[in-house]
Amino acid sequence: MSDRRAWLVRRLSVGVFQIAGVLMLVFLLTEALPGDAAVALAGDHPDPERIARIRETMRLDEPPAERFAHWAAGLLRGDLGTSLVSGRPVTDYLTAGLGPTLVLAALTVALLVPVAVGLGVLAARREGGRTDRLISTVTLAVYAVPEFALGVLLVVVFALRLGWLPPTAVGHSSDPLAEPAVLVLPVLVLLARPVCSMARLVRAGMIDALATPYTAQARRYGVPARRVRWAHALPNALAPAAQQLARTVDWLLGGVIVVETLFVIQGLGSILMDAVAARDIPVVQGLAVLFGAITVVLNLGADLVAHRFAPRTGAAA
User: Which residues are within 8 A (CB) of 12 and not within 5 positions of it... i.e. 6 or more apart?
Assistant: First the structure.
């Protein structure tokens, strides 16, 4: 078995164990929530019979190991459980909230890659110059602003003062693509910090790549500077940038909760917040497993890309 194939098998095996660890961690964390979930779900004036029915539905009378095995077996069959509040399958919640969340994440990533790479290459091209200093200063300043504070600032300026954009999604279509103006401020908030971090990473990678002997050799052979930057230096800067992109999408899973709450967008983040407030454990577990599995898969993909572009960096499991 070749070294690359052995590395791939080892990395995929680690990914499987990571997903199993995510399942166990989600179950243990929801088990550790304070209070009795059955009593909390029974209402302000709990009826003992209703509490008993809820405990039976949640299988709270069984040992934790048996409940975990039953829950994990259901996940393998694609059964995420049933909401204790509405009685609807958890998959219905995922289907209802996935659309707006995917739209926000897809737009953010689609804009992130060209903007960050362009800024990073532009700064590296003029290292130490006025453009480089301007880009570095602005990206550092924007990165220092928390998402919630930036969102409030953008709402005050562009929605309340100037009136150019709607402040929230309240009163607008549930389909975000039907009214793109609703998405402008949320996407700007989600885009701000990742663009800054990735642009600085691409800049550093480009500067290192442009200083290597093979790029100097390419210049001596008369290769145009533009080709040296984009065809020779940039691929070597993409390995750490790909891993940063995966971490950025991980961050989007958390940032989208803040953004959807701030702009009242009914996506997975808002559904998760409502489920936590209502102690709807199956919905919380289903969403947590989804977010955790996406994180593992994204990091696996980032390692594969990094290993493909720069196997000498030793991206390993």
Answer: 300
* Residue with more model confidence, 176 or 182: 182
CB 81 within 8 Å of CB 71: yes
Q: Which two tokens stand for residue 7?
A: 């590395």
Question: Cα–Cα distance between 243 and 306 in angstroms, integer?
Answer: 7
Q: In this structure, what token pair is assigned to residue 199?
A: 């642009």
DSSP conformational letter for 266: -
* CA-to-CA dists, residue 24 to 13, 91, 298, angstroms: 17, 20, 19
Residue 175: predicted pLDDT:
66
Q: Which sign does the torsion angle of CA 147, 152, 157, 159 carry?
A: positive
Both structure tokens of 280: 């709807």
Please state, as a whole number, how many other Cβ atoms lie within 10 Å of the Cβ of residue 297: 15
Three-class SS state of 137: helix
Specify whether the CB–CB gap between 213 and 197 falls below 8 A: no
Q: Report which DSSP code applies to 160.
A: I
pLDDT band at 223 (very low <50, low <70, confident <90, very high): low
306: its two tokens: 């990094």
Stated pTM of the model: 0.68
